[in-house]
């Protein structure tokens, strides 16, 4: 019997308009509750963005945000993996000094807000706000700290310019990260830098312990590099039909339908109807 279902959001649960079929989800969610199946969402984005997508279900769900660095049960924070001020400062210096011309945007995310430099071009600022709803401009992002923001800082995000060399630049950047940090792609030429060894699978493992679920009692869905850890966790993992090849190689299954056609919800319904 399945006890826990965890899904990625962008290009997995959400369609190209970053929405989902709310009527269909209401019926599927009711079936999950009837069968005592816990539902969680996992994203590289911030918690508030996730919660806003599930207003009517917040207190009945778990939320894994910032690629596993932050876990909420409803509105209650249960875990946050913070970065030190030194780690952030070293990372920002490296990004600005060594990759400045190759970067179109940098941000630092905390539990309360996502912070960007006031010099960030307006077009990029507006684009970033689509993914980070509580976005705040600061005078100089290079000087940011937990004290100056009165916030618990958990991730550094960097978006590279589109181009044929983008993957090489990302690889070079990853080799230069300060000790104890690593980055994962979140799509859209964006890497999220955080504590080494912490990813979405970290959050899923926490929930598995909470719900006393073994790997065979868990279902996961994903499409991208930052989903690989949780796809490897269980034989009941599903890469999206529209996912990258590496996701499909690391998952137990591939969905019949893509994110444009409710691939996650259709698969969940099929699982629930046959268990």
What's the CATH architecture of the largest domain?
3-Layer(aba) Sandwich
Q: Give the biggest sheet.
A: 8 strands, mixed
Q: What structural class results from the helix and strand content? A: alpha/beta
The string of secondary-structure elements, in order, is EHHEHEEEHEEHEHEHEEHEHEHEH
Mean pLDDT: 96
Radius of gyration: 18 Å
The poorly predicted ranges are none
CATH class of the largest domain: Alpha Beta
Within CATH, the superfamily of the largest domain carries the name HAD superfamily/HAD-like
The number of distinct helices, counting runs of at least 4 residues, comes to 11
**What is the number of independent domains?**
2
Q: Name the strands of the widest sheet in spatial order.
A: 5-4-3-2-1-12-13-14
Quaternary state of the chains: single chain
Plain-language structure description:
This protein is α/β, with parallel strands linked by helices and 275 residues long. The chain has two domains: 4-80 and 198-273, Rossmann fold, CATH 3.40.50; 85-195, Hypothetical Protein, Haloacid Dehalogenase-like Hydrolase, Chain: A, domain 2, CATH 3.30.1240.10. Helices cover 35% and strands 25% of the residues. The protein is built from eleven helices and 14 strands. The strands form two sheets. It has an eight-stranded mixed β-sheet with strand order 5-4-3-2-1-12-13-14, with helices on both faces. Strands 8-7-6-9-11-10 form a six-stranded mixed β-sheet, with helices on both faces. A hairpin with a 4-residue loop joins strand 10 (181-185) and strand 11. Helix 2 (22-34) packs parallel to helix 11. The longest helix has 15 residues, at 85-99.
């Amino acid at each position: 019997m399945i006890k826990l279902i965890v899904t990625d959001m962008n290009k997995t649960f959400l369609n190209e308009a970053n929405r989902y079929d709310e009527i269909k989800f209401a019926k599927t969610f009711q079936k999950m509750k009837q069968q005592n199946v816990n539902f969680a969402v996992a994203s590289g984005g911030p918690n508030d963005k996730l919660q806003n997508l599930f207003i009517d279900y917040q207190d009945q769900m778990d939320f894994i945000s910032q690629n596993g660095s932050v876990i909420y049960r409803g509105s209650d924070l249960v875990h946050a993996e913070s970065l030190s001020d030194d780690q952030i400062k070293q990372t920002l210096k490296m990004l600005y000094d060594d990759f400045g011309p190759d970067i179109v945007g940098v941000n630092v995310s905390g539990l309360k807000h996502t912070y960007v430099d006031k010099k960030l071009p307006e077009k990029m600022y507006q684009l970033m706000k689509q993914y980070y709803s509580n976005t705040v401009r600061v005078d100089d992002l290079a000087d940011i700290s937990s004290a100056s923001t009165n916030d618990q800082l958990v991730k550094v995000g960097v978006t590279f310019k589109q181009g044929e060399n983008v993957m090489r630049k990302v690889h070079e950047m990853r080799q230069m990260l300060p000790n104890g940090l690593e980055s994962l792609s979140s799509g859209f030429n964006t890497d999220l830098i955080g504590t080494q060894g912490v990813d979405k699978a970290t959050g899923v493992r926490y929930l598995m312990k909470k719900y006393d679920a073994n790997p065979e009692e868990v279902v996961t869905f994903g499409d991208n590099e930052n989903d690989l850890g949780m796809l490897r966790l269980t034989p009941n993992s599903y890469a999206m039909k529209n996912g990258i090849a590496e996701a499909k190689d690391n998952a137990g299954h591939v969905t019949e339908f893509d994110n444009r056609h409710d691939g996650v919800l259709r698969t969940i319904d099929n699982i629930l109807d046959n268990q």
